[in-house]
Amino acid sequence: MEKKTPVFFFAPFVSSAMRVEPAWVDYNGHLNMAYYHVLFDRAVDEAFGMVGLGRDYVEERNASFFAAETHTLYRRELKASDRVRVTLQLIDHDEKRIHYYLEIRHAEEGWVAATTEGLSLHVDMNTRKVSPFPDDIAGNLAVMKAAHARLARPQTLGRIIGIPARLDRHEAMLASRTRH
What we know:
Elements: E1 13-14, E2 18-19, H1 33-49, H2 55-61, E3 63-74, E4 83-93, E5 97-106, E6 112-124, E7 129-130, H3 135-148, H4 169-179
Antiparallel strand pairs: 1-4, 2-4, 3-6, 4-5, 5-6, 6-7
């Protein structure tokens, strides 16, 4: 019987360095928002390739994982030729889903350009329906989750988008009087 090498994960996962391509810069002079997602997507492929969910997984097992939901925060502009790395933290997983958090960081200076939280679904490519991960992939995800469980929970995790209700001027004045 072939002995498998155990999977090992850094916490967080750090992608290969990537460069902002000049064609990705929009008329505002910074990285177009769609290309932040290209960088995130490349890092997801790199990270989850390590658990066995790479291109060969689709070819050999006829299954894959699809994005179900993302929430992105743009924090700082990236410009042409900036070099970045993306970190990935596996937050949770169950038999059919993966919940993860990523940060695009400037490769030399370390500041965060954008963050995204994602939920992906494991899909049987024959039926195009959500299906359980095979045992070996689930085991690798468990090892990754255990390594990443030691990391601090990201502050923006689970953030809800919206415009908070504002008090009108009269209500604000009354509220300030009652606090004194």
